[in-house]
Design brief:
homodimer, 4-stranded parallel sheet, globular, 18 helices, about 450 residues, alpha/beta, 15 strands
Chain lengths: ~450, ~450
Amino acid sequence: MTMKKIPHRIYLTEDQMPRQWYNLRADMKEQPDPMLNPATLKPATQEDLYPVFCKELARQEMDAATRYVDIPEEVQEFYHMYRPSPLCRAYNLEKALDTPAKIYYKFEGNNTSGSHKLNSAVAQAYYAKKEGLTGLTTETGAGQWGTALAEACAFFGLPLTVFMVKVSFEQKPFRKAVIQTFDGNVIASPSSSTEAGRKILAENPNTGGSLGCAISEAVEKAVSTPGCRYVLGSVLNQVLLHQSIIGLETKQAMELIDEYPDLIIGCAGGGSNLGGLIAPFMQDKLTGKANPRIIAVEPASCPSLTRGRYAYDFCDTARITPMARMYTLGSGFMPSPNHAGGLRYHGMSPILSKLYHDGFMEAVSVEQTRVFEAATFFAKQETILPAPESAHAIRTAIDEAKKCKETGEAKTILFGLTGTGYFDMTAYSSYLEGNMSDYIPTDEDLKPGFASLPDIPQNQR
Amino acid sequence: MTMKKIPHRIYLTEDQMPRQWYNLRADMKEQPDPMLNPATLKPATQEDLYPVFCKELARQEMDAATRYVDIPEEVQEFYHMYRPSPLCRAYNLEKALDTPAKIYYKFEGNNTSGSHKLNSAVAQAYYAKKEGLTGLTTETGAGQWGTALAEACAFFGLPLTVFMVKVSFEQKPFRKAVIQTFDGNVIASPSSSTEAGRKILAENPNTGGSLGCAISEAVEKAVSTPGCRYVLGSVLNQVLLHQSIIGLETKQAMELIDEYPDLIIGCAGGGSNLGGLIAPFMQDKLTGKANPRIIAVEPASCPSLTRGRYAYDFCDTARITPMARMYTLGSGFMPSPNHAGGLRYHGMSPILSKLYHDGFMEAVSVEQTRVFEAATFFAKQETILPAPESAHAIRTAIDEAKKCKETGEAKTILFGLTGTGYFDMTAYSSYLEGNMSDYIPTDEDLKPGFASLPDIPQNQR
């Protein structure tokens, strides 16, 4: 019998695709701490979330018990336009590294949003439309989430307002134009269309805006407009549920080629990609079926897992959301402006935070010049231009593959390639021209962020 | 027996992928007229091409006899990183049009160059490397070809110099940065590094450059640098050979679902995509096995097939290449500056020109506002942002599907979706803001182009 060569790209057939999402919480013996209503400091209820989120999404946010959730037919229909995403064997990267390791990556960039964000956008837009809502609002910084949501809302015929951080609105006119092509109403934030925006403009008419301000405007617009709700692309439990499609497809594809990862690597900002990629493998870990190493990779300049505190904090910088217990640098933490590689969020998904706290996964931080070095090396071997976010995972995958070369171990390494970098060329140019520097905050630099943590009894390291 | 639903996306397995390109000329009873050496007006020989093209590519250019050409293992290895491209069933477009037609499209945009150009770039870079060349040159306007060639050259470790039209160099810094990420040396054209560039700069120091000038510089640099050759991404016979992978994959995928197109639609600039897509279907037509309708779609503002002359002409505006007999508006024809949709080439692949002349295919021209209308409609149904070039084919596919609705015919329509539009958002914005206008040249407007045609005996309509 001859050993059949594993193909470079493995696509599931439509019949083989998962028809259910997987809810990681159902297999966690130790649950994440409950969200708190900031007014009462009591656990938030599903109903507490209704003014902001549509009902089914509020339910999913709170539902830790249902292990598998049917993917609605209409969402599957949309998935079938850009999924399955390929599981890729990085033969040419392996060859360039001369490593005995087998390297796989799940590539989520082959869709117009350029990232995995679309997986949750379509689910959220579908439930909103089904519930009879007449509009959604969100914020976007770099624009991937705004694009993904605009694609989903255009498909379901749901009006969308995107508050785009003003500096991005002005510097990234192409992103704005893509969202507009999908009928999204893009407003530069701060704007005069909300109380929050007007207040900030009055104080500082020339501000370039911030994600915190855009969130405040989007939430205000949603709660003050009948039939309108707010949606968010990361951090939330519901988002991790929808993103489990990444891991479920990956595991299924690996089974077809009789593989199982020794090591799973994902970049971590708010946790949407990492949580989705690892979901079914973490299930194996939680249920004792297997024990792969799982590594979260974050930027050295925004190191929530590796240097943050496991504490109750607000999910937004404007401190209007419920509080969640998570690894956080404090909602007042601002990453250095020279940080180009995405993953700027001050906190981390409460589910992933709990799993990390309980020892089910590891975390490392990497400097951005090493990230871009890995990105350009990868691009030339595998002919994909990666998003800087994704390149954090590439960096660590390369480092681990090099260790395998030293030890001679033929480990199976899996990493998540979350998206493409077409809209990040300013950062690439900066790297290529030698103008990129690294920033690692000192303990002193982290103090203001920690000082912004809400002072409540549960707030413990 | 239940009728199994055809999936939304059909991917061949690696085993099912074509291992040979198909050379359309081998089945043409009437061959295209030979290229002419402009100095002698005699048919150009393979050796005449050696100073400009590498030997194997010069051979392929002249070889009308070999029906199937083995795809080198190394090129297959590269193809496997981004191919097969999906054959897509446009269920949601069909639904939105309420048409009985079945619409399929072959999507070539899922790679970093964003288009089908990579299919020939990797072949050309491979042969150049194999022959021991030490460098390649080319020109690029919008940048898709330059990006594709940079990806291929980076993979094979071959230095590349790209002369980029100065106005694009300045207005599209992101494209430039992508090429640089893949180690391409990008020079704004006109430059002081060539005789041709210096001459143009001396006459007009502030010029934004032109594709004609960039070609002149790239060819000069290639012929004056030992071990260096020039490569081109369209028009040539060798390019159509490499691009046949598009049609071969498509036909194979359609056989798997027991389909055959009644109608095949492709956009046509120089002909690289159209020639590749239709190749095996045209074979059926030429050999009497089947008789699908084949429609080339071109912009009304640059209508080489529908309003050009079938005449000998230069392939470049600088009149330094051999002459080919083709449908042409004259190398002196300049498309209107308000034309945003690509496909600006004055001529057309000699192979396609001959087939059109002999009645094997049809051609239509479409106005750009109708093209962008189709593009935005398609984007919202199929969640892919198309390149303006590709949207010419979408426009005609939609028009034909609407005719099917009127007549009640359930035709099978296939079109080529050549790429994505991320770098064309200026044009999209212009359309969305209502600032886009149409331009249809009058007969008077076409006169200067026709006057530029070389005055030789074979020059007949």
